[in-house]
Each structure stands twice: as C-alpha cells, then as structure tokens.
Write a structure and sequence with these properties.
704 residues; alpha+beta; six-stranded mixed beta sheet; single chain; globular; five-stranded antiparallel beta sheet; 4 domains; 18% strand; 25 strands; 16 helices
Length: 704
C-alpha cells in the first residue's frame, strides 16, 4: 500500500547533532503534539549514486542498519581534534568500555590523591584509561563519550559492563517471587533438579521468614509487592548470561546480575514506618474506561452499555465501596479524513476521575449516539479510541486500571494512510503495560461483519495480551445486544468483585493458579486483579528492588518455567535512541523508494548511509568490519528476527512480506516517539551526565 505524505515523530539528539531526515508534525487530529527535543531532525537527505549488486555477497540487514548508524555517528558524533575518546572493548571497533561503580567507590583527581568524592553505587562510567600506581590498579573514567573525564576510580571498586542489557521484574501475576542466589553453581543445581519446585519453595519460605541458614545459597528475594519501574527506578544489569535446561527440558537463561535501587536514600535518614497494607487496600480505587464503537450499527449496544454502568451504580450507591469505582467513556468512529461528516475519530465523553460522579457518567452516556453516516469500509479506527483512553484519562489515582473495548469491527491498521495513530496492537499493548492498564475486548461477531471477524481477532488478541493471563479477548457470538449485555455484565461484575475483595483487604497469600483455563473470564480476571493489587501496594509502599551487589538468578519462574520472571530491557541513551530512530527512518525511506525495484534496496541503503556521513569512505570501512549495532547484536544473548534478514531472503520473501517488515519498522518508530515523551522513565546514573546520556529501559520486543 503506497504512503502519501505520512510523517513520523522527531526524536532529537542532545549533543548538537542534526540529521538530514524527515521532520515530523503532529499526527493527531485532536491537536496532541509529539514531544519535541531542542534539536529536531532536519530535512531528508538525497542518495548519492548506486552500488551495483553483482559480485557482492549477501549482506545482512543488521549490518546495513549498523552501516547506517555508523554514517550517522560519523556525521554527528565526530569529536573535536583535542577531545579524547573512551577505550574500545577488546576485539571491537566501535563499542566503548564501560564500568559500574561499586558501593563505596570514590573518584579522585589523581591516583596518588588521598581523598576523593564518593560515587553513587552503579553510576555508569566510560573508561578513558587504565594504569597502575603504587601496586594498585586504577580506571580513568568519564560520564560521556565526548571527552568529559571525571577522574580515577580504583579498579577493585568498579565492575565491567560490556552489555546494555538489564532486567526488570515481570508482572507478578501467577508466578512466584524471584530468588537471587550466591553463585552460578547453586542456581544451575536448582534449575536442573527434578525437585526444583519444592526446593525453590523451601528456599523462598526460609527467606520470607528470615530463617536462612548460614550455608544457604540464597542471597536475596524479590519484594512481596511489585516494584514500579516508573516510581522506584532500579538497575539490574546483566553481567553474564548462560543458556541452560530445566530437568524437564525447558530452556532457561541463568543470569548474573547486579542490583541497587536508583536514588537510594542515605542510611542516616530514618525510614518512616511502613504503611498499613489493610488501610491502603481500603483506599484502592478502580478505574474502568469503556471505549465503544459509535458506528451506524452500534446504538443498541451503546444503550446496553449504559444499562451496565447504571446497574453497577445502583448496586453500589449505598455501600462503603461506592466511591472506590469510577467509569470513563470514550467513543470512536472512523477517519474524518476519509469521511468528514463522521465529525470525530475519537472523543472523550466522560473523563475518568475520582471526582467524576457516576450520575455524570450516565448523563454523558445519554449524549453518545451512533452516527448515521456510513464509512466506506466495515472496519473503524478503534486503535484511536484506545490511544485516546491511554493518553487522556487520569489513571494515576487508580489501583485497578482497565479499558474495555466494545466493537463489532476491526481497526485501521498501523500502515493505513488514514490511521489516526499509525500504531499497531503490539505497540499499544506495550504502552498500556507501561501504565499498568489491562485492556479487554468484547468483539461482537455480527453476521454483517463475518468477512472481518478473523482480521479483527488477529488485531485484538495481541492488543489485549496481559502477562500471566493471556489475551483478554472475548468474542460475542451473534453480537446481539442481549448476548453482548450478558457478557458485559459478567466482565464488569468480575472486575468489581476483584476490587471489592481488595478493598476488604482479602489479599491472597499466593498468586492465582496459571495458566488460566482458555477463555475463562473468572480465572483471567483473578490473575489480572492480583497483578493490579500487587502493583498498587508496591507503588503505595514505595517498594524497592533488593539491595544486592552481585547474584545469580533465572529469567523464568522456578515453579512454572513457561512464565517469565524477568523482562529483558536494553538501556539506550537519548542519543542512541535518536540514532536508532534515524537509521530506521533511512531504511524505511529506502524501502519506500524501492518498492518497484526491491533488488536495489540494499545497494541504496549503503549509498544513503554514505550520504549522511562527512567521510563516505570511513562509512564503507566501518560497514565492512561490522560496527556499532552489528557488533552489539553479535554479543547479545537475545536476538532480533528482523535483523537476521539478508539480501537473498529480502528478495525471496516477496512484496507482501517486505511490506510487513517496513510496516513493523514504522510502527516501532511511532513507539520510540512515545518513549521519548515518557519523561518519568528517563534516568541519569550519577551526577554531571549530559542530557543525551540519560537512559531509557527499552523493552527487548520494541527493538527492530
């Protein structure tokens, strides 16, 4: 499908660089602007000539992406002649050495100096030199790659960090708490033991009860409530990773990690008494935003939704729980660019707020009417409604955070020129998970939409995926108002029951069983409700990651290894995310330009990379040796599927599959724009770091 003037969000560098790429304007019809940095990208570059394809061996896409990144780095990141560069990792051409400061580290101006300045634990430094003085080894460090040398730290007070991989605790629903063991051998024995579940349970019980014997392999245990990365940022960098198998043959990764919470309070500050969990749970509020299709066929379902909200209000209005649940309402239609008489793409009818009374929400629902204007396609733009609910509703005061999508049609896809968001279901799901929101979908399988049912299901299953619970997608056979009403009643009753149990301080001692029965709303609701409870308690209690220096742990649950215990993230600086986005824009641009001549795609990428650099010959040299991204990918224990494509595979996959690859890249670019605007997850380790050296924990699945 051809593109017509679509724009992407700018992600600007913070080091003075300006890239010759497409500037982006607001993609939102409702006036929401993309976050702009001080130095946005400039105009798109042309292409300097072509390189013949004959006689070249197939070049993998990750090497070409690396080539593009090298061009950007050469063009932008060139250091002044007098500036020093950090040391390269041994055997690498473009990856710099980095270290993490141990607790108690001090930076001194000279190795002979007696006194130094204390360094916060796990401050990230680049290595500018190594030397021995008086029989002791020192590392010369700086806070950036641009020659900003801070001083020297004793080598035994830092640890090498060759990768940017870190982990975060996965959603706690349906899994056990993570154990941190003292050494790799103990972890290997545990994960390969036929009695793994029982042994891990005994270790966990001893750690929880503070009964660990002196010879126990357990060093620490995950906190009982969820550690919110946005509220209490923590760093769990992966120092080493090994592949192993459980006794029953399930693959698992054994990880050596380091841990310390960011912004850890000084030990001299007396910790306030912990809040009473029961009292906190009594304040637990549930926010449910209904995102409902306002197309021609939906008026009976709008009225039935109003009945559901009214029934819940009548049930709760004279109970102590009446103030603990609130509803928001969003309506959506289709593109007003295609059909202007539809009036809006997505619209907030009733905001989600603790101060919004139920009668106000009901009155707003009375004003919601299905349009009388037909759109040219059966599908609508439901993703615009989801995005509006994510962005515009006040989710902060609520512990239980739910979106219920109600529609009889699929959504405009991310690659649709008339899409309001240009985001796909996977990207929207990631944004929802970042905010701790569970998305449910009630899909009305009406006879009129029979040709759209499979397409819509393929969109809504990944959109509603929730860790530990599976997809919260519920088809409504027949799609009649009565059938819909029964399922809507069941879903809302399930969420309200979970919330009432929480407010009554009926917190379960253990997570619900998993995996849930297929399509079981009760089982899935219990898992999601438990996760909401744990996340809420973690936020309210300010739960921090365990203060462990170095330990070994597994990335899968010890009892149910099908469940992830840790989510892998890649720490990218603001400048790195900008360079990555710029490289992907070039790939996308060349893919669009060569739709009719795919055999020229790889050759044009090399030319485009050279066009962005001040020294094209240096770009070719870097590309031949494997540079920044290529070297980086070669060392990671986690691989990308897209970047494994080579030239022959690209040509063999055909136009439809090529289009899918480009659409995936574009959707990820949109997601990076959202990351750029998420200010509360950009973190600086240590003092004096440049703005472009702040880090964002990018989920592994968000990488190209």
């Amino acid at each position: 499908m051809p593109r017509r003037g679509r724009r992407l969000p700018p992600i600007g560098r913070e080091d003075g660089g300006a890239l010759p790429l497409t500037p982006a304007l607001s993609p939102k019809g409702r006036g929401r602007k993309w976050h702009r940095l001080p130095r946005p990208f400039g105009e798109r570059a042309g292409v300097r000539g072509e390189m013949p394809m004959q006689g070249r061996s197939p070049m993998r896409l990750f090497r070409l992406l690396a080539l593009v990144l090298a061009g950007l780095c050469v063009g932008l990141g060139a250091l002044p002649a007098e500036a020093r560069a950090p040391l390269l990792i041994e055997g690498k051409k473009t990856l710099y050495q980095r270290v993490l400061a141990r607790p108690g580290a001090e930076v001194v101006s000279d190795p002979m100096a007696a006194l130094g300045k204390p360094v916060p634990p796990f401050t990230v430094f680049y290595v500018y030199g190594r030397q021995s003085v008086g029989g002791r080894d020192f590392v010369e460090v700086g806070t950036s790659t641009r020659g900003d040398v801070a001083g020297f730290i004793a080598a035994d007070r830092v640890i090498d960090w060759k990768q940017s991989l870190t982990v975060a605790f996965a959603n706690p629903a349906a899994r056990e708490r993570v154990l941190f063991l003292k050494d790799r051998e103990a972890l290997g024995r545990l994960m390969s033991s036929p009695a793994r579940a029982a042994e891990a349970a005994a270790m966990r019980d001893a750690a929880i009860g503070d009964r660990l014997p002196p010879d126990s392999p357990v060093l620490a245990i995950e906190p009982p409530t969820f550690v919110d990365l946005a509220r209490q940022f923590y760093l769990l960098p992966i120092l080493n990773a090994e592949q192993a198998l459980t006794d029953d043959g399930f693959p698992v990764r054994l990880l050596e990690v380091a841990s310390v919470p960011a912004n850890k309070p000084p030990v001299t500050v007396a910790a306030p008494p912990p809040p009473d969990p029961d009292e906190m749970l009594r304040r637990f509020k549930v926010g449910i935003t209904v995102v409902i299709d306002n197309s021609v066929s939906m008026q009976p379902h709008i009225e039935r939704t109003r009945d559901v909200v009214r029934r819940i209000h009548e049930q709760l209005k004279d109970t102590p729980f009446a103030d603990n649940i609130r509803f928001g309402v969003v309506g959506f239609r289709d593109s007003t660019k295609v059909t202007p008489s539809l009036e809006y793409v997505a619209k907030v009818f009733s905001p989600l707020s603790p101060d919004r009374r139920p009668l106000e929400t009901l009155a707003a629902l009375d004003t919601m009417k299905a349009t009388r204007v037909s759109s040219p396609n059966f599908y609508e733009d439901s993703f615009a409604g989801i995005k509006l609910a994510l962005d515009e509703m006040d989710w902060g005061p609520f512990g239980g955070r739910y979106i219920i999508l109600i529609t009889d049609a699929g959504s405009r896809a991310a690659n649709d020129p008339s899409s309001d968001t240009h985001l796909g279901p996977e990207q929207l799901s990631q944004l929802a998970q970042q905010k701790g929101i569970a998305v449910f979908a009630l899909h009305l399988l009406t006879p009129a939409g029979v040709n759209d049912h499979a397409r819509a299901e393929a969109q809504y299953r990944p959109l509603t995926r929730f860790p530990g619970a599976g997809s919260l997608y519920y088809p409504v056979p027949g799609g009649s108002p009565d059938a819909f009403g029964r399922m809507a009643d069941q879903l809302v009753d399930t969420l309200v029951a979970q919330a009432r149990a929480t407010v009554a301080a009926a917190t379960p001692a253990a997570p619900p069983p998993a995996p849930p029965a297929a399509g079981s709303m009760a089982d899935q609701g219990a898992i999601v409700g438990y996760a909401m409870r744990m996340a809420y308690l973690g936020r309210e209690q300010g739960t921090r990651a365990p203060d462990v220096f170095r330990a070994w742990t597994a990335d899968r649950d010890t009892t149910k290894p099908t469940l992830p215990a840790l989510d892998v993230r890649v720490l990218l600086t603001k400048n790195q995310l900008s360079d990555l986005a710029a490289a992907l824009r070039l790939i996308l641009d060349q893919g669009e330009k060569n739709r009719l001549s795919p055999q020229d795609f790889f050759a044009q990428l090399q030319s485009a990379a050279a066009a962005t650099a001040r020294d094209p010959s240096l770009v070719r040299q870097v590309g031949n040796l494997g540079d920044l991204l290529g070297e980086y990918l070669q060392d990671l224990p986690y691989r990308s599927q897209i970047l494994g494509l080579d030239e022959r595979e690209w040509l063999a996959m055909g136009p439809a599959a090529q289009r899918e690859v480009l659409d995936t890249i574009e959707a990820k670019l949109r997601l990076y724009g959202e990351f750029d605007a998420t200010s509360n997850l950009w973190i600086a380790f240590g003092e004096g770091q440049a703005a472009g050296e702040t880090y964002f924990p990018v989920p592994l699945e968000a990488l190209p």
